[in-house]
Amino acid sequence: MGMVGLSMVHGFEGLAFGLAHEDPFDPATFGATIDDLSTPSMIGMFLMFLPSAFFGVLLSSAALWRSRAVPRGAVILILLFLSSTSSSGRGSPVT
After folding, report:
1. Is the alpha carbon torsion for 21, 26, 27, 32 positive or negative?
2. What is the mean pLDDT of the chain?
């Protein structure tokens, strides 16, 4: 479910990139597309992507910790990154 949400977010970003690089650049169309993050489809995309990405990284870290495939310090750094980005609000597409 997280990968589906990620692909939808990338599709939205691709649309915005395409609108920004058109020859007859229309700021009104571009602004309406970028600023409209409160539509049901965008809310659905973020509800699919953000929790799935968060718990996916958390579960992957737990699996790496248990398997001892990487040094424990690397797993701790992954968890520190996850906690710092989720608590600060940075890295989140919804501001």
Report:
1. negative
2. 76
